[in-house]
Amino acid sequence: MARKLSFLDNKVARRILVSFILAALIPIGILGLLSYQQVSEQLRLQTAKSLHRSCKDYMMSFIDRLNNFESALRLVAIKVEKFGNGFRLIPFINEQSLVGQFDDLVIVAPNGEKTSLVSKTGFIPDLTALEIQEIAVGKSLIKPVVGPEPGNSRLWMAVSLAYTHHEASILMGRLKPEILWKAENIEPNELWVMNETNQLLFASKPDFVLPREVRSEFSLADSGQFDLNYRDDAYVGVYRNLPLKALFASGIIVIVQAQPESLAFAAIQQFSAIYPPVIVLAVLIVALLSARLITKYLTPLERLKAATLRIAEGDFSSRVNINSHDEFEELADSFNEMTRRLRSQFDILSTMAEIDRHILSALDATEIVDIALTRLPGVLYCDLISIAKVDPETYQVSDIHTRRTGHDTDIMAKPIMLGQKDILSLLEKQGSLIETNVNGKLSAYLKAFRGVDDWTFLIVPVVVNGTLSSIICLGYQGRNPIPPESRDAVRNFGDRIAVALSNAAWEEKLYQQAHYDPLTGLPNRLVLNDRLMQELARAKRDHTQLAVLFIDLDRFKTVNDSLGHAAGDELLTQVSRIFVNCVRETDLVVRIGGDEFVIVITDLHNHHNPMSMVSSIAEKILAALNHTLVVAGHAMTFTASLGVAIFPRDADNPQDLLKNADAAMYHAKDEGRANFRFYSPELNAAALENIKLEQELRGAIAREELRVYYQPKVDLSRRIVGAEALIRWQHAELGFISPAKFIPLAEHTGLIVEIGQWVFEQTCLWVKACHAKGFRPIRVSVNLSGIEFKRPDLVDKIAEILSKTGVNPQFIELELTESVAIGNIKDSVERMHKLKALGLSLSMDDFGTGFSSLSYLKELPLDIIKIDQSFVRHLELEKSSQAIVKSILALAHGLSMETVAEGVENEAQFDFLEQNQCQVFQGFLFSRPIPGEDFLKLLAESPVKEEPSKA
Ligand SMILES: Nc1nc2c(ncn2[C@@H]2O[C@H](COP(=O)(O)O[C@H]3[C@@H](O)[C@H](n4cnc5c(=O)[nH]c(N)nc54)O[C@@H]3COP(=O)(O)O)[C@@H](O)[C@H]2O)c(=O)[nH]1
What's one GO MF term for it (predicted)? Predict the structure, then answer.
């Protein structure tokens, strides 16, 4: 039942059913209605016709009867004889039958005397003169006498007796009604007979009175039809006026007949009763047949629809079964074929997508090949798949990875040689495929598979970056045609493998770039973070310790600047090899940037003394560096500063371990470089202090905490000939802070630019003020850091300050450090010339500490060389210092440059320098750096020489 009803759930089914029912109902309804109207009309006509006919028949028989009455009356008239004063009837044979037709027979004499021959009622109507006249001319008069009731009306007939008795007497007879009206043959009709004034003479049903309005119609035509209602019955009636005038002297007699519609329309009423059930039956039949038809055609449609929905949900497995031997069965077959193809395509695409995902996430070409060998046979319906490398130049096929149905992957390492023709055809078929067999193209390669004599093979050349890199081979057992979708899929797959292999190569490259330092080949910071995390987890799990060594090369910048970047790179490469050689393979050596390296020493077991073990490694590294290295043709020894932090002692996470090792390294640097330091919490405090100092320094100028002090420079006679401007920082809370502490910090943060400009401007203003106050003009030097010197706007800035302060530039000297000046020799020389062009003097500070080459020292437009105080400090004691100082002095003289010795603290040093023709001296022996006003006091006391000093 549920199945039967279910088709009504279907919209199409409902529509078709309603359409079918309407299609049946509308014509049947219209037909029924039209038929009803037509039949009703026909029945009406027929009824009217039959009534007319009946009316006419009645009329004819009525006239016949009147004629008979007339004949009878005239025969009776013949048998009338005069008898006395009256009349009598002569007996005759047919007397009985003739006289019997009349209820009354009366002879009316011309004098009006009436002699009754037969008398039943005794009533004799009077004749009018016109009637008598008509009778006199031989006509038979018919005279209706209307009674109070229809049954009382009578019809008289009168004829003249003049022809028989030559007297103008008239024989009148009252016609017997039962003979006259004779209405028995008219049933089932009703009959009325009326005179010309519509007075009723006879009615078959006396109480059935015709309404006046109906009767009034009778005078309008000789005959006609009418409708009337009587006692809830409808009647159809006809009337006919009798043309009696031609036969009798008579008024019009109207014959009326009527029949009940129920009788007349009996047939149509039967039709009306039967028609609705017929319609219902027809509808039911149509509905049933439609339902059957719909079910028949809808079931396959429903199945097709359900199958379509299943496909939409991704289920390609079900088939549609229709055995109707018609177009639906053909449609189902086509649908099943389409589903099969879709399923095959879907399988291919989803497998391809899965392969794509694997391929794109796989970095390794071997992994990609492995995925392809495992997944593809299932979607390409092949019995063998093989992927191999091809060298298009040597014609070699190698690394042949093969998988057959039911077997594991086989790797054939031994290469197979292909012919040149094979290679050419592979190159020709790029983006396409080759169909072959073991005796066709690439047979040398295919024969290696064995037992494939009757197989068909599809070969796809894989081209990566325009070069034939590999081939994919699919083997199909037997020579059955290969499905076209497999061919397309194979081609697609060839493209994917090509992309994947090129991706793999590219990913490999990217990975290398992202994780390894291209210069030294060492892992970079990314790897360090990863490994350190892993090693820390392992150390925590195994309860071992771990050390992080932070290494910074000492004076690497000097090498880079003085010998160039290529030399710096060479040094870094050599140093990185030294580091790797100093540790175990399981340890990690990382270059984290510039000249900074990190070494992670793993597996420090607790039963060892980790500190002493790490110390010996650090010493080993320092010792290994201490050997002479040849960099860019220069032999040099090199040092580094190391900081060590140990897990879990100093920190338990990578960031803190690195930070602490870094802090320890800075400590080692502070302590004179070329050594190593373990981290201690105090170091951390120092680092924090540095951060605070930096913050304070940023606001120092604004808070006017900085001052410029001046340290005198004297000549041989100890007379002040110049000064060096040296910055001082008097912090409100921290007190005096040494430039040795904050200048490196300012250089590190870049604040040195602002500070340097401020010192230079202050010095210019001070010099200008001294001159204005009338003091003897002397040259004052200002330190220019490497960072300041390298700024492109340096010359403009200096010129701007000189112009702003209005100082005479010949009394201002700039002290450049050796490394800065020699870094980019061409640029440096150009810039120094520009500075000199402003009228300034240039001196080389800390001379002897860098890697200056005498060959280009002479190219620099220098005026003064300052011997570094490290050579002066133990001059009186160290032969080596004496030798260096002597050679610097000789060099300066040779280049005609003035010499200034700094850091002169005692007479012995002064004496040595004096004896070796040093010209200017600076040091605590003469004065410490002092405020400007104090300096002016000294200057005022300092004797004036008549000859102007060269300083
Ligand atoms: N770029 C700038 N650098 C500056 C500036 N002011 C100072 N500095 C540099 O800071 C370093 C430390 O300077 P400071 O503490 O002022 O030390 C100078 C002298 O006080 C010191 N000196 C002088 N004579 C002696 C002595 O006989 N013994 C001794 N132990 N020290 C002495 O030497 C420093 C001057 O050196 P130098 O500049 O190389 O001539 C220092 O490197 C300054 O250069 C600044 O404004 N800008």
Answer: cyclic-guanylate-specific phosphodiesterase activity
